[in-house]
Amino acid sequence: MAIRVNGTEVAPPGDARVSLLDLLRERLHLTGTKVGCNQGACGACTVLVDGERVLSCLTLAVQADGREVTTIEGLAGADGPHPLQGAFIDHDGLQCGYCTPGQICAASAMLREWARGVPSYVTADLAAERIVLSRDEIRERMSGNLCRCGAHNGIVDAIIQVAGESAR
After folding, report:
1. pTM of the complete model
2. What sign does the dihedral 128-129-135-136 (CA atoms) show?
3. 3-class SS at 54?
4. The domain 3-75: what is its CATH number?
């Protein structure tokens, strides 16, 4: 089998101990995915595997065999940047930018979870037909992605903008 990374088939590494993060950065030179804590605590290495967010530092590359991996480099379409990429710029959802790729990947998966009606710890009404995506709801859903610069308000504003666009 092969791992599809941003639409391109890649052979899984021969060494089963190679993390997905190391495969992406060191072997495929996709350096948008960042090394943060390398222990799954910060979210800087977040990528999408079959559309779900995963911490690539804690995922073995062989676990992605036969699956689709999308990094920040693969989120943009032929028609331009992903809507979240533009919204992060519009709302100053970044400062140093180190956490930004992981934040954007996590936010794109989080918005799909929300659209499917997946509740979070702070979802007030589990029987509601549609979950209200409040600022607290977004903060809870994005709590696995840390920003040391303090761009959280801009990140939340960017997600609200894109969620509003997708709800139309």
Report:
1. 0.94
2. positive
3. strand
4. 3.10.20.30
